[in-house]
Amino acid sequence: MQRSKGLSAALVLSASVLGMGATAVPQAAAVTPPVAFTADDLPTWQTNGIVWALAQSGDTVFVGGTFSQLKPPNGASGTPKSAVNFAAMNAATGAPIDCDLSFTVTSGTATVRAMAVSDDGKTLYVGGYFGAVNGVQASSLAAIDIATCKPKTDFKASFSATVRALAVSGDTVYAGGDFQTVGGQSHKRFAAVNGRTGAVLPFQADADQPGRAIAVTPDKKHVLLGGDFFTVNGADSHALGVVDATTGANVKTYPDNFVPQNSVVKSIATDGTGFYTGNEGTGGGVFDGRIAVDLDTYAQRWRDTCLGATQAVLPYNGVLYSASHAHDCSSVGEFPDGRRHHLLAQSVDDVHKLGWMPDTNDGIGEQIGPRAMSISGTGAQKYLWVGGEFTTVNGGAAQGLTRFATGPDTKAPGVPQASAASVKPGAVQVRWRSSLDLDDSKLTYKVYRNGSATPIHTMTGDSLEWSRPQLSFTDTTAKAGETYTYRVTASDAAGNTSALSNSVSVTVPESAEAYPNAVLEDGASMYWRYDESAGPFVGDLSSGDLHGIGANAPTLGQTPGAVGGSSKSLSLNGTDQQVDTANRTTVDGAFSIETWFKTTSTKGGKLVGFGDQTGTRGSGNYDKHLYMTDAGKVIFGAHPGLPKVVASSAGLNDGKWHHAVGTQSANGMALYVDGKLQQVNDVSGNQSYSGYWHVGGDNISGWPEAPSSQFFAGQIDETAVYNKALTGDQVARHYQLATNPAPADTIVKVTASEDSYANAGAPSTNYGSSASLAVRGTSAYESYLRFTLPKAPPGTVLKSARLAVKTSTQAGAGSTDPQKISPVAGDWTEDGVTYKNRPSLGTSALGTLTGATEGSTVYSALLDTTAMTKALGAEYSMALTSEGTDPLWLWSSEASAGAQTPQLMLTFGAP
After folding, report:
1. CB 525 within 8 A of CB 722
2. For residues 209 and 263, is the Cβ–Cβ distance under 8 A?
3. Which is the most buried residue in 102, 158, 531, 675, by most CB within 10 A?
4. DSSP of 689-756, one letter per residue?
5. What is the rounded CA–CA span in Å between residue 288 and residue 329?
6. 406-439 pLDDT, tens per residue?
7. 666 and 673 in contact (C-beta within 8 Å)?
8. Which three-class secondary structure state does DSSP give residue 898?
9. Secondary structure of residue 418 in the 3-state scheme
10. Rounded CA gap, 38 and 32, in Å?
11. Is 839 exposed, middle or buried (0-12, 13-18, 19+ CB in 10 A)?
């Protein structure tokens, strides 16, 4: 239906709240611009049927449809009241006001299908199928005096059939619908009547099929027509036309399938620069989306080809809000075919959707969901009302009506899903799936380390339901050999903050892990290691931030992995499990796919591949893939018009880990298995489309030796994609690093055998039995540690040494001062040392502890390797001292909370 004009006149009506108190809601500009409304649905009285039309005047919203009763919002107090196909509501409270009109008919089912308010805000015009209003005769179009809420008896329009669309301009009321006569005169599907008397005007715009939408251009010169028709005034103009506002003569027709023959126009709305259509189609190849047309030329500005019929469009402040059941927007690079999205927003200048995503269900009737929209409110606070067939809004019960305000925004973003990884010293990648907020696409994320209340990193990121990219942060202050925990929060512009994410723990290696670093150095643009403890989030270790989402709970973190060490793998059941990239991407030019797999299955399945849909129903376009046949053969395929493949020999389903790499470049395709070249061809092309990477499942039908199952049963690990063709040497090196790695370094942890501290303020007191150690310059605290050092294992040398300590939980345990670590030259014992008899210290420093500012946190300092090497195989003592005034409090080895600190971490490896 056409939205009513303006937001001008206030109603002179008493507000009968019927159990709901009116509450003034402060405005808060908290949503991401240019969206004006939050996605938080407000309590609104409900119907017991379908709402077909909405209109507004001032602070009142008029509701028309097919229903007989209004009832309080779900869970609210109040008494249901009779309402025969019409209601008037307070825009701010969502409750009915004292305006009762009954639209009835003696034969058939009465219904209200369209409403519009006069330019002066004094008259409401109501169209539909009815014969009387409160007993006053009316033939499918009535005029209501808004001030008295009574039918205007001197308005005597007569339509022969249902009126489905209305628009008002001055003293003229334009109508569209099923009728063929008006006031006894021939007017087929569109007509105009005098707004005071209902007399038929000389406006002739005949169409051959029903009219469903009508609007007047802002300059009042033209009328926009929409519907099911194929001709306007005998001219070819399917579903859309522009006519003269006075005569109805054609101004612009739209022939030649501008709107496809199996699609119709259900809604038209205008703003200062354009008009917008909502479209519905039936059958294959339909057009269900929206069209923007420039008013100065009547030429198309853009066309949104999402599938899922659009019932209403409404522009407001540069944003086009729409009511539909859009389920597939892959044609415009957005969500693939899947669940229905009933409320969307996009710029009036662009097809792409904005971050406003409240939702309804399909509801009753034709199960379309929302069908009508209107914006109301005379003050700064505006309300977007939505009516239709739905029975739920944002998952809660709400039938027929809902509304959204310009503020405040009260809902927090979803909790981020986090993981972390470290494959070399001095770097931890903390990554998370960006959160979803239904009205904020730009969120602020904070990363917290080791339980600190102060974030170590803050950043912003954009996300939509169908585009929730991985965000990542590299902690370069992380020290080798230490274990860190991280958590992440998300906040919107209003300050609503999610709960902390899951806590993720990672230990920083003392030396670089050879295999993953080789993959990264060779340019992986996506790299999944599957080391998460739980899904569905699968982190991408590469700089591409192209994470995965598990479908049907595949098992992550399975041991052992393919490449040894701490690596873990993915386990798939071969029935319905897979992992897909969460965001749509493209594959342009050369590429490589690399993965490890292990299976005994005789049903084959997709290992890794590219396809245009997510989920387990299978893609319609699919190639650039590695798949296994029932016989255990691996095939690498691309589709430059026909399936082209290179293949391995059979028998790779032997229960052992195997390495597979497929490459394509201008030189052709190549397949490698276990580091060796299997087969090549000269095919350099593949199918071009946007889509998603899949691991463990997707369509394989129509390909050579297609397996019994598209789903792979077994384990997969170390999956990588490259935007280039790996060389044979690079492939061989990856296999060699995984299967015959260099000897790994060994870390030996040595806990202090004795520890104590001395206090200048109590110079004769021994603290050997204390659970704490202390370090300060003035007034002095000095701590002493003794370790029994092992000898270097045969064939190795000491490569590094670190001292790890843990701050205590007392207030102010951390220190902003550095602490010097020195060798102890004199004698001391744990139960005998005091400040008076404290031992002398060596002159050369072993290291410096810095940045130990937080409580209950493990910190470490790198020690002089040469000095520590000389001390191996004997007892060795060191002291912690400071020149500052900020004390550092540590757990001693007597404290169970100390996590086995103080501790030396000695790394031994090949010379």
Report:
1. yes
2. no
3. 531
4. -EEEEEESB---TTSTT--S-SB-EEEEEEEEEESSPPPHHHHHHHHHHHHSPPPPPEEEEEE-SEEE
5. 10
6. 999 999 999 999 999 999 999 999 999 999 999 9
7. no
8. helix
9. strand
10. 9
11. middle
Query: HSE on the CB side for 234, CA within 13 Å?
Result: 2
Cis peptide before 43 (omega within 30 of 0): no
Beta strand extents in 358-426 (DSSP E only): 370-376, 383-388, 392-393, 396-397, 401-405, 417-424
Compute the distance between CA of residue 69 and CA of residue 224 in angstroms, rounded to an integer: 34
Output the pLDDT for position 168. Answer: 98
The SS3 call for residue 514 is: helix
Give me 391's structure tokens: 């029975």
Query: In terms of Cα–Cα distance, which of 514, 522, 579, 588 is closest to 552?
Result: 579
- Which two tokens mark 744? 């790994």
Contact assessment for residue 230 and residue 208, using Cβ atoms and an 8 Å cutoff: yes
Phi (first) and psi of residue 770, to 5 degrees: -70, 150
3-state secondary structure of 578: strand
**How are strands ordered across the β-sheet holding 417-424?**
417-424, 427-433, 470-475
Mean pLDDT on 330-342: 94
**Region 507-534 average pLDDT:** 94
Task: Judge contact between 307 and 341, C-beta under 8 A.
Answer: no
Pairing of strands 548-551, 772-775: unpaired
Q: Distance between terminal CA atoms of the chain? A: 80
Q: Which two tokens stand for residue 199?
A: 């007399």
The CA-atom distances, in angstroms, between 439 and each of 369, 462, 498, 514 are 20, 12, 14, 44
Residue among 540, 552, 539, 459 at smallest CA distance from 502: 539
- 482-485, long-range: CB < 8 A, 24+ apart: 482/507, 482/508, 482/802, 482/804, 482/858, 482/859, 482/860, 483/507, 483/508, 483/858, 484/420, 484/428, 484/449, 484/450, 484/508, 485/449, 485/450, 485/451
Q: 765 to each of 755, 769, 826, 831, 835, how far by Cα in Å?
A: 15, 11, 19, 10, 7
Which residues, other chains included, contact 155 with Cβ-Cβ below 8 Å and sequence gap of 6+? 142, 143, 195, 196, 197, 198
Q: Are 91 and 59 in contact (CB under 8 A)?
A: yes
- Judge whether 583 and 468 are in contact, CB under 8 Å: yes
| Model pLDDT for residues 712-748, shown as the tens digit of each residue | 999 999 999 999 999 999 999 999 999 988 777 888 9
Q: What tokens does 35 get?
A: 């969206």
Structure tokens at 598: 């292990």
The bridge status of strand 483-491 relative to strand 442-449 is antiparallel
Token pair, residue 235, equals 């001219």
Q: How far is CA 165 from CA 55, 183, 214, in A?
A: 12, 18, 6
pLDDT digit string, tens, across residues 680-715: 999 999 999 999 999 999 999 999 999 999 999 999
What is the chain's alpha carbon radius of gyration, rounded to the nearest angstrom? 36
In whole angstroms, give the CA distance from residue 26 to residue 20.
Answer: 18
User: Percent of the chain at pLDDT above 70?
Assistant: 97
CA-closest candidate to residue 777, choices 889, 884, 886: 884
Tokens 């926009």, located at residue: 224
Matching residue, tokens 């909790």: 415
Extract the tokens encoding 506.
């990672």
Q: Which two tokens stand for residue 414?
A: 């979803």
At 512, list the tokens.
């670089």
Q: Which long-range contacts (CB under 8 A, 24 or more apart) does 640-646 make?
A: 640/683, 640/684, 640/685, 640/686, 640/687, 641/685, 643/702, 643/703, 643/704, 644/669, 644/681, 644/683, 645/669, 645/703, 645/704, 646/670, 646/671, 646/678, 646/679, 646/680, 646/681
- What tens digit of pLDDT does each residue of 860-894 get? 999 999 999 999 999 999 999 999 999 999 999 99
CB 486 within 8 A of CB 498: no
Give which of 276, 279, 232 is closest to 260, Cα–Cα: 279
